[in-house]
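Forwarding the complex inputs:
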Amino acid sequence: MEYNFKRIESEWQRRWREEGTYNVEVDESRPKFYVLDMFPYPSGAGLHVGHPLGYIASDIYSRYKRQSGFNVLHPMGYDAFGLPAEQYAIQTGQHPALTTEQNIARYREQLDKIGFSFDWRREVRTCDPEYYRWTQWAFAEMFGHYYDNTVQRAEPIGKLVAHLEAHGTEGLDAAQTAALSFTAAEWAAMDEREREQALQNWRLAFRADTQVNWCEALGTVLANDEVKDGLSVRGGYPVVQKRMKQWQLRVTAYAQRMLDGLDTLEWSDSLKEIQRNWIGRSVGAQVFFDIEGSERKLEVFTTRPDTIYGVTFMVIAPEHEWVGELTTNAARADVEQYVAQSKLRSERERIAETRRVSGVATGSYAVNPFTGRRIPIYISDYVLAGYGTGAIMAVPAHDSRDYAFARHFGLEIVPVVEGGDIEKESYDAKSGRLINSDMLDGMDVKEAIEYMFAEIERRGLGKRLVNYRLRDAIFSRQRYWGEPFPIYYKDDVAHVLPLDKLPLTLPAIDNFGPTAEGEPPLARVDGWHTPEGYPYELSTMPGFAGSSAYYLRYMDPHNGEALVGRRADEYWRNVDLYVGGIEHATGHLMYSRFWNMFLYDLGHVCEPEPFRKLVNQGMIQGRSNFVYRIVGTNRFVSLNLKEQYKTQEIHVDVNIVRNDILDTEAFRRWRPEFADAEFILEDGRYVCGWGIEKMSKSMYNVVNPDYIVDKYGADTLRMYEMFLGPLEQSKPWDTNGIDGVHKFLRRLWSKFYSREGGLIVSDEEPTRAELKTLHKTIKKVREDIENFSFNTSVAAFMICLNELGDCSKRAVLEPLTALIAPFAPHMAEELWHVLGHDTTVCDAPYPVCDESYLIEDSFEYPVMVNGKLRFKQEYPLSTSAADIQADIVKAEGTQRWLEGRAPKKIIVVPGKIINIVV
RNA sequence: GCGGAUAUGGUGUAAUUGGUAGCCACGUCAGACUUAGGAUCUGAUGCCGAGAGGCGUGGGGGUUCGAGUCCCUUUAUCCGCACCA
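Prediction (whole assembly, two chains):
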């Protein structure tokens, strides 16, 4: 009987759905395992063959865990709010809700064909009000809390208010935007508006004026991780820096905990490193410099207080708040011009012009507190307003940027670390002996840094400080298709909606662009205010809002009382295995950890970290094919003849090419302009060129999973995607190799059914060799699954089948069916029932290797002479190394290769190798 | 510039973790069968060489009886950060 994958797959998918095979409930009697995929953003293009890669791997692991006795939670949903749907809406006028709905339907259809073991009853969509109610709730909770550094966790804002009432800011140690200072009496004297203004300095969700990434084309601000190289990640539009009042999340409060938490996670080192760099912890000193003729002191942050004797000038950022104050009348015109100029530069220009020295003197002077010397204060955009204090002490001798600046402006360069030659470049040394530094002279850099920390504190010049590169997350977006903020304004004071007023649903509109006044689209909505008439916030939340806690909702998706109920949370706890792309390293994976830690502080969840183990699947690239048109003609020349002509390389649809041979008839039909194409063939065939590129429509290299499923079946697609190579590695999709996997499945099928259609499974006792093959395979496949090495497990199945030959014995085939079930679930299910079972193969215990079948009693040693394999010699494994050593010299082969010489040394590694050194 | 990763046949890859490099597939070649299919089956296939044999894991060096694997160095590609004080 033929392997009719279409019948088998549609039938079992239907039965799984009808019987709820993959439904899962809390069950305290069994151990849990939570396997999660990063949910997709349902784009209009549908899935290509690269998208399911991670889903297939996690599905295999889920099924394996289930067969191993775990109660497996394996859900799926959609990250449905976001820019592309809205951009599409602006262009076409179609409501994003509608296009999103359509895209989700298409995604679901595609996913269903692949045979995943999702419990679809638990589906979440971030744009569903019943879901985003909890996104709004979490935001409201953040608004209602601050981060208390003394206890290292979020605390209710009421505790802060109590402190301010009693002591003002005295003795307060909390994560804050700026260092505010007022007394209890001053607090008491504030009105509601002033108080709220002050509280925003500590709230974990707060509104503040800040430097933001503004994208004019998208009409919205963007978070740092949404900008790359000065361009928006979505769309690639220019981004400029702008000061705006925005809602933000105080993720910096959790910087240290997020850093420390990394050590507890089973994530790849590279991913942890990316997050560590993003958090960017650096230990240094805060130092205050006196300003000549002013009461104020200029605060800087430095990691190299040891070099303070080499400070010959200071630099502040053009956005520094004291620019006006520090500028003397004589310098004012120049400074104003410079500041205006640097404001105009886009982020992209700024990056491109890195290393070009620019700046202007303020005319003011500071005093080096250690040398007592008068040093000029400059303004330059190589100092960033957003890092540290936006001001630096410049040490030109030992910092290349300061050096370039000093050279350009002819400033003094004083070396303070021995060893460099500062004539041509700075000496950015992290070790060495201090010179020209008074009491530090002769100390090593490390020693001097420690000494200076103490000295700075002793002299009351500042203190030791930890700085983070991590910025607070800009949380508002001036657009429509996102979660509305649960915020309304009363006399411009922000108030938050309580849970029983949530969700605040997104109103329907029909024009998705900004208003004429440049207000967000929600400004168009009449009645966008509370019943009392107080206006709601006009911006909406960013894409990462909805994806920050979705994994919690899957645990308890229909709970109307809480994001996740206590019983579900305490059972499922956190994600045991998370599979997704590395592109979320500094976005989603940071925000989710922050969000989860916050909910943990409040006691809503019982685990501080959301994702225990994380696997990053590689990108599937496209394998493009090319044809070569002779310039100015409609003639196409085969790859190996193209050098003889002047040709132009043209992408050709990979679906009309097989093994790099072009289907010329299909090519003529492909596009009208090729209808009368002529070909110059080689060996009667047209050979195409190929290259690896991103999979995209414009390269004509997109392969649709539906097409593969239709032609080869879901089981073949699943196994082939795994066979392609290591999961974590990026690799090109090449449909050509798929035959090998398909052939394997057909051969497996033919172990059960003869060509004529009869079942040929016998009850004969398997031979020892057959059992050895079976158990070897069981061992290998189990190990490979545990190591996420799915490509080698597919190879192990193929080897197993090759070794079994025409063995069709039940005692071998039955465990093999259970073993392959996670990979090819449809076929395994069918065969499982053919073997007479009436329960699902998903619950068949995963086979265990019986090591006794693998034990060998003798071993054929490869015998090397001077490191080259010369012959083989068999010894019982019980033979000792000494006995082998004594015996091997006498062996016929040894004698032949020794050619009368005496061996210098004989190395015997039992069970591995014999090497004779002559 | 800093940090991380990768490099093996025509292609995707594998290698009991320092022990016979190239498993398993694709492709190619040869053969069988044939209802002529892009089916199925069998065999060969790293490179050079008629053969014996030699050479082979990006390049160079080292440790070792033995290196794809460890160390040093260098090149190329990819990823992350990037005037971070």
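The mean pLDDT of chain A is 91.
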